[in-house]
Hints:
This protein has 296 residues and is of the alpha+beta class. The protein has helices spanning 9-19, 56-67, 108-128, 135-140, 142-148, 150-157, 163-175, 223-227, 229-232, 234-244, 250-273, 277-292, and strands spanning 24-27, 36-42, 46-52, 81-85, 90-94, 99-100, 184-187, 196-199, 204-207, 214-217. A hairpin with a 4-residue loop joins strand 4 (81-85) and strand 5 (90-94).
Amino acid sequence: MTNPITPAPALLTWASRALGARPVVQDASNPHENSRVWQLSVPGDVRFYLKVSPRPLMYERETVALRHSALALGVGHAPQLRASSTDHLTLLLTAAPGRPLKQLTLTPAEETSAHRQGGALLARLYAAGDLSGPRRTEAEQALQAASDGADHHLQQAGDRLTAAEQKLVRDLAEQLRTLPPPPLAFIHGDAWERNLMWSTGLGQAGWIDFERSRLATAVQDFVLMACTPWADRPDLRAACLQGYGRDLTPEEQNALACLAALDAVSCLAWGPAHDDPHVTARGRRTLDRLMAGVFA
C-alpha cells in the first residue's frame, strides 16, 4: 500500500475550516509505509502540517504531549497543535522553524550547538511531565517490558546473529531486570537527528514528532542517538549531555548498553524484512560495537 499524495477530501475540508482558507497541499510523508503527512501553505507564506497518525495510541500520545509537556519547550522549539480530530486520528500542526538535522549539512560548531540545545530541550520536557497517576507504574516497568521483548526480536532476526551474539543480547536483556530503578521522565520517545530540528537563520533547535512520547525511564530517550550520530561523534554526545545538565549515571550507562542491544536485534529483524539497508546497518554496527566492548 502506497501513501496517498493528497489528503482525503474530508480531511482537506476539515483542515481548510480550521485554517480559514483553502491551503496549497504538498506531500511531506516519510518513505516508510503508513506515513501520511502533508505540508499546507496558506496566504502569507504560512506553513502548517496535516498529520494522520498510524494508530490510535500514537495519536493519543502526540496529542497529549503537544497539549501539555511539549509546551514547556517554548514557542519555536516544538510544533503547536492548531486542531485535532479523534474521528480521523488527525493533527493540524504549526511548522517548527528549520529542518531536521538529518537533512542538513552543518559545520561542526552548528552540529554541536544543535545537540547541546536538543539536550537542554529534553531536560525541559522531562521536568514538565506529570509522573503521578496510573501510568507511573507503566514507566517503572519500562525496562522490564523492554527485556521481555528480547526473545521475540531474536526469533525474528534468526540466523542474522551468531550464537555468541544471541547470548550477549539475552545476557544484556536479563541485566535490565536487575538494575537499580533509574530516573523516570516524560520522554520524547523518538529522539534522534530525524526529529531534531535546526534553524540556521535563528541558530535554534527544536523537536518534532511526539507520537512515541510517554512516561518511561529517561535513559531510553538516548538509545537512538547513541546508536547513530554519537557512535562517530563523542563530541555530540558530550554536547547533548552538557545541555541536558548532567552526565548519565553508571546505572543509566549500563542500561543504555542493554537497550542498545535490544535496538540492534530489532533492527536486524525489521531492516531485512522491510528492505531497509540503513536500519539493518545500524543494528549490525551496534551489535559489533557491543561484541567488541567499545559501546559507550
